[in-house]
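WARN retry 2 of 3 for item q-0093 after timeout on previous attempt; input resubmitted unchanged.
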Amino acid sequence: MTDEAPIVAVIDDDVSVRESIQGLLETAALQVELFASPREYLQAKRKDDPSCIILDVRLPGSSGLDFQREMVAAGSRAPIIFITGYADVPMTVQAMKAGAVEFLTKPYRDQALLDAVLSAIEKDRHRRIEDRAVDDIHRRFEALTPREREIMALAISGQQAKQIASGVGIREVTVRVHRREIMRKMGAKSLADLVKMGEALRNRGIRMSPSP
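OK item q-0093 returned
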C-alpha cells in the first residue's frame, strides 16, 4: 500500500481566506480541498490519504474548538492547525491539549503556515505507518491459539518458563514448545521484540490474555 499525494482540508467561512491559503499551499504542490463549514467537510467524500486540517477557530454556529472535540470523540486523528485573529492563552492551551499541531494568529507568515502543514502531514504519515504495523501484529496475534496468547502474555510480563508452567498447570517443556511457536507465528526475533509487540497491542486496547 502506497500513500497518494497529501490532502489539506481548509475550513473557513471566509472565501478570500480559503482561496488565499489554497494558492499558498498549491505552490508547495499540495492538494487542497476547501470547505465553508465543518458540516461541509463532514458531508464530503474524502480519500484515505495523509492529510491535515486547517481550521478557523471562530466559525458561524459551533466553533472550531467544538468541531475539534467532535472529531476527537468520533475517533478522527487528522492533525489540526488552527488559525484565528482572536487568540488568547486559554483558547490556545485548550486546542493544543486536544491535539492541535499548531495555533497560528493572524496575520501569520506564509512560511509558518507551510511549515505547520508539512509537519502535520508528516505526523499523519508516520501515524499511518505505525497503524499498519500494529494491524499486522494484531493479525499475527489473532492467529495464536488461546493457550499461546495466555503464555505470550505471561512471558512478556517477565515470567520464566518454570513459573508459567506452574501457574498454567502444564509441563515446563510444553511451555517452551509453545513459546517457540509463539515467536515463530509473531515473527519475533527475541523476547524483547515480543515485548514491544505486546506493548503495541496494549496501546491499541487489545486484551492480551483470555478473560477469566
